[in-house]
Amino acid sequence: TGHSYIVYGPLANRATSVMYEGTPNTPHEGRHWEIVQKYGVTIYYTAPTLIRTFMKWGHEIPDKFDLSSLKVLGTVGEPINPEAWMWYREFVGHDNCPIVDTWWQTETGAIMIAPLPGVTATKPGSAMCPLPGIAATVVDEGGTPVGNGGGGYLVLGQPWPSMLRGIWGDEERYRETYWSRFAEQGYYFAGDGAKYDDDGAVWLLGRVDDVMNVSGHRISTTEVESALVSHPTVAEAAVVGATDETTGQGIVAFVILRGNVAQDEAKGADAIKALRDHVSKEIGPIAKPRQIMVVDELPKTRSGKIMRRLLRDVAENREVGDVTTLADSTVMDLISSGLKEGKSED
């Protein structure tokens, strides 16, 4: 799919693609904006994780560059929290660029859910609605579509031109992975959860594997992460569920502070309590994290995705799994040692 959107599509439309390989802070933290300014980039497409990293570094970095050539801003790879959406719009798009938050997968071969820039009235953090011709819907455990205000499993109910049609040499794995969960209804399901708001807009909740069960309440890691990032001291957050004898699962959060926040003060007991209380206020007492750890960096792949399975290993005191795909494998050593020193809520 990357070939289609990065190479074939732009070339077919006589457009120029600008590709950058390397970390976003090499040789300096304004590298992306320097490229936008130099080449007059009009469409900028990146992951929410990187946007939150830019937030951590501060808006002073993009402020140094001329980004007036930008016309459309896109996000992809995971749900984007409203705070990151607004920061992106204000400090990169200067309130002049539509933000297109997209949901799709390598397997779908094309974007499935996204607002149409300049046409769809958007909401910060929502992918809005399926594109014309795409039959995406949210269903409950039994495969019944939920109404506005409801949440569940994101499925595709009708075929589309670019769909995955098999796994080479393993037809059974293809059927089991994508079609078995709702075989009776004939739905394609690849593991993501979503909900409708009261207006029917789609809000992505990430992988259903990342939904925690706390005292019988199903809580999305995305919701807790978004609540944490809405606090003025937090730039980025990753949340996992860890086994808890009392509640079934306890919420463990790892947060990166914004660049202008005093690190020692923000790591103190009062600051951690303030973050727990903030989550409780935003979502409810049931979502208050059992433990919050302030870290300098999160385990991310080279493409910028947070590897929550590794954080889950640490939170449950298991041996950390394969780290070969991490951009920096030493991150996990620092997090493991830090978590052992941290304190849980009494």
How does this structure look, described?
With 346 residues, this protein is α/β, with parallel strands linked by helices. It folds into three domains: 2-108, 3-Layer(aba) Sandwich (Rossmann fold); 136-200, Luciferase, domain 3; 207-341, ANL, C-terminal domain (GMP Synthetase, Chain A, domain 3, 2-Layer Sandwich), CATH 3.30.300. It is built from eleven helices and twelve strands. It has helices at 2-12, 31-39, 48-57, 60-63, 82-92, 171-178, 221-229, 263-266, 269-282, 308-315, 330-341; strands at 43-46, 72-75, 99-101, 136-139, 151-156, 192-196, 202-207, 211-214, 217-220, 234-244, 248-257, 291-294. The strands form four sheets. The protein has a four-stranded antiparallel sheet, covered by helices on one side. Strands 1-2-3 form a three-stranded parallel sheet. Strands 10-11-12 form a three-stranded mixed sheet, sandwiched between helices. Helix 5 links the parallel strand 2 (72-75) and strand 3. Helix 10 (308-315) packs parallel to helix 11 (330-341). The chain is globular, with a radius of gyration of 20 Å. The termini are far apart. The mean pLDDT is 85.
